[in-house]
Amino acid sequence: MPRIAWIEDADATGRLAELYNIARSRAHSRGRVPDVVRTLSLRPDFLEAIMNAVNRLHFTDGALTRAQHEMIATYVAALNRCHF
């Protein structure tokens, strides 16, 4: 049982349901809503802002390519033994 309250897929409505569908459709999500996304489900406005920031800032080419961002994120997750 999670320690952070969140809204399950079946209970999501409106904009939250749309955001869950977007999260589910991303390649790294493997067709499911990642738990890290669910942690903001009680505040869909925050969730949307975070999802937009991640797309715009974290996973776009800049000083590093998206592939480099992904490699760094994967390496750090492995170091931290985090499945995200």
Describe this structure in words.
11% of the residues are buried. With 84 residues, this protein is mostly helical. It has 4 helices and no strands. Helix content is 54%, strand content 0%. The model has no long low-confidence stretch (mean pLDDT 87). It has one domain (9-79). The radius of gyration is 14 Å and the shape is globular.
SSE blueprint:
Elements: H1 14-25, H2 35-38, H3 44-58, H4 66-79
Helix pairs in contact: 1-3
Q: Which residues sit in consecutive blocks of at least 5 with pLDDT less than 50?
A: none
- Helix tally? 4
By helix and strand content, what is the structural category?
A: mainly alpha
Percent of residues in helices comes to: 40-55%
How much of the sequence is in beta strands? under 5%
* Main sheet: strands, sense, barrel: none
User: Terminal Cα separation, in Å?
Assistant: 18 Å
Rg for CA atoms: 14 Å
What multimeric state do the chains show?
A: single chain
Spell the H/E element sequence.
HHHH
The tally of domains stands at 1
Q: Report the mean per-residue pLDDT as an integer.
A: 87
The rough form would be described as globular
Strand element count: 0
